[in-house]
Design goal:
Layout: E1 2-10, H1 14-25, E2 30-34, E3 47-48, H2 50-58, H3 62-66, E4 69-71, E5 73-78, E6 81-86, E7 97-99, H4 102-116, E8 119-122, E9 124-131, E10 137-144, E11 149-159, H5 166-170, E12 174-175, E13 181-190, E14 198-202, E15 215-221, E16 226-234, H6 245-255, E17 272-277, E18 282-283, E19 290-292, H7 308-328, H8 335-359, H9 362-372, H10 376-386, H11 397-430
Parallel strand pairs: 1-2, 1-11, 2-8, 5-14, 11-19
Antiparallel strand pairs: 3-7, 4-7, 5-6, 9-10, 10-11, 12-18, 13-16, 13-17, 14-15, 15-16
Helix pairs in contact: 1-4, 1-7, 2-7, 7-8, 8-11, 10-11
The structure holds flavin-adenine dinucleotide.
Length: 432
Amino acid sequence: MLQTCDVLIVGAGPGGASCAFWLAKLGVSSVVVEKKVFPREKTCGDGLTPRSVHQLEQMGMSGFLQSKHRYHGLRTVALGREMELKWPEHPELPDYGFVVSRYDLDGAVAANAAEAGATILQGAEAVEVERGPGGEAAAVAVRSKDGTTTEYAPRYLVVADGSNSRIGRQLGAVRDRSLPMGLALRGYFNSPLGDDDFIESHLDIRTVDGEVMPGYGWIFPMGDGRVNVGVGILSTLGRWKEVNTTKVMEAFVASAPARWKLDPSDPIYVGTGGKLPMGFAVGPRVGPNFLMVGDAAGAINPFNGEGIAYGYETGRLAAEVIADALALDDPRVLRRYERDLEERYGTYYRAARAFVGLIGHPAIMRAAVGAGIRSKLIMDPVMRVMANLMQDGHNGPAELLYRSGLAVIGAKDRLDPLVKASRDVIGARLSR
Ligand SMILES: Cc1cc2nc3c(=O)[nH]c(=O)nc-3n(C[C@H](O)[C@H](O)[C@H](O)COP(=O)(O)OP(=O)(O)OC[C@H]3O[C@@H](n4cnc5c(N)ncnc54)[C@H](O)[C@@H]3O)c2cc1C
């Protein structure tokens, strides 16, 4: 059976659902195939920052968020000190976030896209892409739960199938292994502080040898008596693949502040992990008639591991480009997507990649955390830069810090070989 459609979207996570919603708003019909059936679990910290909330509100989801757990900032913890940083006031973005389980969130965002006019097919897995003579995605085989296979011949294909991106790989997308990548593990625990007003981030997670690692541990209150607890580490730590994240998680839970009352034998705890492709390390992201969005494009922010907002944002950018390509009947318009990504994220993500490269050196990580945790004057702008909450044309401390950081990057590039050599030596010691 061969079906034609204007746009086929593979995956109904943040990237796919947002793309479908914005296409519908632009008058373009799309078919979204999602291999799972909502509600479904997705391994995540469940943290929605002001950037994510802004996108959800723009998609008309304020009502859905109203019943969810709203929080007002980030508590950073390191080296025995704590600091509460409220989300800043911003002309566009809200000064609050939410913690919402992906079990609840993703189905609701997909249903919102369906209400706007998109067709969402659940339990439908894209299994194979057939390429045409010009390298275009000519046909996509989609297998349903009942075992039937339907071939779609879309004019445009959006790859939104997440970090493993099987369909992206079939279309030739690869991750640049020289760029940073994250690995994270999370699980739920019962806690008396399940409705705390701050999400908490621990900047001094350690190896079993007690060495501070590049990455962080988190405790995010869910508002329902549970907290989402996790650890994320960065590949900029030498020989990071040999680090046992389950052990890092155990150590983190054991050392978490007693007020959370985390119990390692909590029956609701099941640790599940995932990869965080970041800094647009995956490419190419544009083909003759296809685009990659969200994790399939490696869109996670390397500064903080946040990917939901960037799924929504890149899905929306892809929708705008495809709508124009259809209106002009010219697939070459798709190339604009790469330019849009560069314009919006290029410099910021290069800065983020340089930053995570630097903190891959444990001594630099220790020094940075030690300096930051002592002063709100330092930590507040750092938090704004890392959560990408700066304001265009503004000259506040965060914007000035960011601009000075950019100036340092040039110098850092010249230092890179030295930093890498010493990191490898220390990484070898840590992984023993
Ligand atoms: C442990 C962990 C914690 C994290 N914590 C946070 C956090 O607190 N805040 C945050 O902002 N980000 C967080 N992230 C990152 C965030 O989860 C991702 O960046 C985000 O989910 C990316 O959205 P996406 O739509 O690109 O992909 P996904 O959310 O992975 O969605 C992809 C969808 O495609 C479907 N799919 C896959 N293959 C196919 C196929 N062949 N056919 C049909 N459907 C398919 C999947 O079932 C899935 O529904 C975390 C990640 C991890 C691993």
